[in-house]
Amino acid sequence: MKPTIRTVTTASLFIILGGAIALRLSPQAVERLTAPVEPASAQTSRHYEVVSNSIYDGDTFRVTDGRQEIKVRLCGVDSPEKDQALGIEARDHLRSLIAQGKGRITLIETDTDRYGRTVAEAFIPTSNGDEEIHLNSQMVADGMAYVYPQYVGSCPNSSVIETAEGIARREAIGVWADPNAQKPWDYRQR
């Protein structure tokens, strides 16, 4: 399926993938990203509220279903650690994306990691209600996270996440602006 493009402003575009997912990309990137995203409604998904002040970094946060809190790790992506270059910016960027859903979030759970966190793809409903922001690929497209090669294969939309990284890398966005930047998984091994 060929994505449809809706102009939002002259400076930004939304690309609608699979009819329901919105990624904000530069006009040049729009032409290169053609992989459809499976919207949250197409798979087994659960709706939650994001716990206030729970966004720790660019790939981890907590949600609640009203009965229990769950710590969530975004599937297939790894953001810089908070004390790395762009670490705070990645956290703040994730906060700004999540804020667009006014606390609402939809998760497609894929696994539980060794720390007991729910690994998931996350979708934020937009204000008009008929689109969703795919957090995993949006963070990568914006250069605020890397594809985590060891784990991306378990994500339902792995090809979209990988395509988003290729675009961010070619455009030298965010983490890709510094060719010597250390990947978070290498940084944690120090």
Automatic annotation (TrEMBL):
Pfam families: SNase (PF00565). InterPro entries: SNase_OB-fold_sf, Staphylococal_nuclease_OB-fold. It comes from the Bacteria. GO terms for molecular function: endonuclease activity; hydrolase activity. Keywords: Endonuclease, Hydrolase, Nuclease. Residues 46-178 form the TNase-like domain. This is Nuclease. It comes from Phormidesmis priestleyi.
